[in-house]
Amino acid sequence: MQPQGVLTGVCFYVFSLSTRNVNLLVEFWGAVMTDYQAYATDNPEELARAIEDGIPHALRGMVWQMIAASKDPAMEKLYLKLIKETSPHEKAITRDLGRTFPHHTFFTAAEGLGQETLFNVLKAYSL
Fold first, then answer.
1. Averaged pLDDT of the chain
2. Rounded Cα–Cα distance for residues 79 and 125 (Å)
3. Among 61, 57, 49, which Cα is nearest to 14's?
4. Which residues of 44-70 are buried (b: 16+ CB within 10 A; e: fewer)?
5. At what angle do helices 113-126 and 73-82 cross, to 10 degrees?
6. Whole-angstrom Cα distance, residue 114 to residue 11?
7. Are 123 and 89 in contact (CB under 8 A)?
8. Are residues 122 and 80 in the same domain?
9. Which residues fall within 8 angstroms of residue 99, CB to CB, at 6 or more apart?
10. How many domains does the chain have?
């Protein structure tokens, strides 16, 4: 267990913080997630420091989606349209799937969820 307030990598040891500090952390990230664009515009330095200190693990995926603006309904609609289309590169993509991230457990199973997901992303980009 780390001393109170110590950071290790990007993991914040919330369990070692006082109740007051946990409440501040929840309040801060709640404000960020309520309206990311406004918070980033109004408080860029504070947000940058908080990201450097580490986004809490439980919020990391959602926060990075906001930072990357990846939750765009128009883009999601386009992606769903593209993965239904046929790409002239499907054969090459399929051939390379097993060689892409060969030691990463998510991608090792042929015809598994990882390779299927990667295939769809690469096919959409190829169109």
1. 83
2. 9
3. 57
4. eeebeebeeeebbeebeeebeebeeee
5. 100
6. 25
7. yes
8. yes
9. none
10. 2
Amino acid at 9: G
Same domain, 82 and 117: yes
Residue 2 belongs to some domain of the structure: no
Structure confidence at residue 4 (pLDDT):
44
Rounded-to-integer distance, Cα 71 and Cα 63, Å: 11
Q: How far apart are the first and last CA of the chain?
A: 49
**The domain containing residue 62 runs over which residues?**
7-68
**For the CA atoms of the chain, what is the radius of gyration?**
20
3-state secondary structure of 11: strand
CA distances 69 to 12, 62, 79, Å, are 24, 10, 15
Highest mean pLDDT among 19-23, 32-36, 61-65, 81-85: 81-85
Does 11 share its domain with 64?
A: yes
pLDDT of the residue at 20: 67
